[in-house]
Specification:
With 511 residues, this protein is an alpha/beta fold. Among the domains are: 150 residues, Rossmann fold, CATH 3.40.50; 95 residues, ANL, C-terminal domain (GMP Synthetase, Chain A, domain 3, 2-Layer Sandwich), CATH 3.30.300.30. The protein is built from 14 helices and 26 strands. It has a nine-stranded mixed sheet, with helices on both faces. Helix 3 links the parallel strand 3 and strand 4. Helix 2 packs across helix 3. The N and C termini lie far apart (59 Å). The N terminus is likely disordered.
Length: 511
């Protein structure tokens, strides 16, 4: 019989680990890149929390984490929270300039960095007066001016109790910057824990016997609070993949009898295309979830028909800790839909004046709930622009409600206005992808002296194919109004993506 851990009254996210360790001390907490029981992980987190406090860090101080998917990340993250600090996960693929900007903006007093990434701090430390300590994991000897993880923990200081929790800041999660410079999203302990409880009240519920595969990077809120923190709060086991490899992760699914997959569309596409993939590989999986980018309906259908696993697509943002809606909330799967709001989430679709749109009309998704962030770090004007006094957060996404199921149409920031008419890039992209020669595409606006903007398509052709701009535009004209058809077509070898598979349109707008 599976043990379901009851929801305790928690104030600090790290309390969830302590509670699970008390209930299930010998249950594996981490497998894969690290192997620890809950008793062992909880003891290590105590050690890390004591070390942070012994180093003079005070509640509310920020600690940056520049790490891969490893036990070090988990220990440093929970140790920082248990010490009353604020964790600042940093994208480990960023350049030194991008990392420096986040460290400066957050005012981090310490950074825990993997030995594979410490070179990214070269030349920027002197520009960061607040940064006092650099702790390098995995290093046998410390680079100049740093300490190794072992040296850092060498004091054996017991952590002092802290009253930090609830609405206190737990996490500064910097947005991916697809629409501009990254901003620090302020998420409290209560925000993060609320999203756990919301998911647990749906078919996304986890049992202590579940084994969850985390293939996404832990610096991303989706992996951090769904694949890791939610799993730990429920007493299940996390299998950490240091990097995503389709064949290696398929082997891990079979080896560890994984029951839940947490992924983004590129991971599911890669598994489908793996030459040796077959239903037996996923026989232990009871459900899969997809988020962070739109999942193509054909991938959803093929994963079920060819590999025998139902994918529940969801929708969320960094600002919502992150899950807002999921197909798992309802009792049916509607291809193309991102489902219905989680319990406790209020969702409306509004026009430019903030009024509710008519049924079936597109509108901006605005939401309210206990998982919604309090604002952007030290950016009151940006915060006020998206979150009103009543707690409603304007997501910037355009959606349509069809019988209670949410369909995302586009990003408001990506809207193209041609002669006063709205063009949603996703609508044009869907038509372009039907062209037999088109492998991938994205659509953006291009300035025009008479119409304000025209539609510009950036197209990747299938291998060995050739096409002209006229051919592409003419094909679109069979399905779209003339003002929606691409007036400019550029052919490229590849499109820029972020780590969750989203096309980064801003990288194309200046080209």
């Amino acid at each position: 019989m599976q043990l379901l851990i009851p929801w305790p009254t928690l104030r600090n996210l790290a309390d969830s680990l302590h509670d699970t360790a008390a209930h299930l001390p010998d249950r594996p907490a981490l497998l894969g890149a690290a192997t620890l029981t809950y008793r062992e992980l909880n003891a290590r987190v105590d050690e890390v929390a004591g070390a942070f406090q012994g180093a003079g860090l005070a509640p509310g101080d920020r600690v940056a984490l520049l790490l891969g998917n490893s036990g070090y990340f988990v220990e440093a993250f929970y140790g920082a929270l248990r010490a009353g600090l604020v964790a600042v996960p940093v994208n480990n693929t960023f350049t030194a300039e991008e990392i420096g900007a986040i460290l400066a903006d957050s005012g981090a007093r310490a950074v825990v960095v993997g030995d594979a990434y410490d070179h990214q701090l070269d030349g920027i430390r002197e520009t960061l007066p607040a940064l006092e300590r650099v702790i390098v994991t995995g290093a046998s000897s410390p680079p100049m001016g740093t300490r190794t993880w072992r040296q850092f923990l060498g004091g054996g200081v017991r952590p002092a109790g802290t009253e930090v929790g609830g609405d206190d800041l737990a996490l500064l999660s910097y947005t991916s910057g697809t629409t501009g410079r990254p901003k620090g999203v302020c998420l409290s302990h209560a925000n993060l824990l609320a999203n756990h409880e919301q998911m647990a009240a749906t078919r996304l519920s986890l049992e202590s016997g579940d084994v969850v595969l985390c293939v996404l990077p832990l610096f991303h809120i989706y992996a951090l609070n769904v694949a890791l923190a939610y799993t730990i709060a429920r007493g299940a086991t996390v299998v950490l993949a240091e990097r995503f490899d389709p064949l290696q992760t398929l082997a891990a699914i079979a080896e560890h009898r994984i029951t839940v997959l947490v992924g983004a569309p590129p991971t599911y596409t890669a598994w489908l295309n793996a030459p040796t993939a077959e239903p037996n590989d996923l026989a232990s999986v009871r459900y899969a979830v997809s988020g962070a980018a739109p999942l193509e309906p054909r991938v959803l259908e093929r994963f079920g028909s060819e590999l025998g696993v139902q994918i529940w697509e969801g929708y969320g943002l960094t600002e919502t800790a992150p899950v807002l809606t999921s197909v798992a909330v309802g009792d049916r799967v509607v291809p193309g839909s991102v489902g219905r709001p989680l319990p406790g989430v209020e969702l409306r679709l509004v026009d430019r004046n903030g009024q509710d749109v008519q049924p079936g009309d597109p509108g901006e998704v605005v939401v309210r709930g206990p998982n919604v962030f309090s604002g952007y770090w030290q950016q009151p004007e940006a915060s006020a622009a998206v979150r009103d006094a009543e707690g409603w957060f304007a997501t910037g996404d355009i959606g349509i409600d069809e019988d209670g199921d949410l369909f995302l149409v586009d990003r408001r920031a990506d809207l193209i206005i041609v002669s006063g008419f709205n063009v949603y890039p996703k609508e044009v992209e869907a038509v372009l992808l039907r062209h037999p020669k088109v492998a991938e595409t994205t659509v953006i606006g291009a300035a025009h002296p008479y119409t304000g903007e025209v539609v510009r398509a950036v197209v990747v052709l299938r291998e060995g194919e050739e096409a002209s701009a006229h051919e592409i535009s003419e094909f679109c004209g069979r399905s779209l109004a003339r003002f929606k058809c691409p007036q400019v077509v550029d052919f490229v070898a590849s499109l820029p993506h972020n780590l969750t598979g989203k096309v980064v349109r801003r990288h194309l707008r200046g080209n």
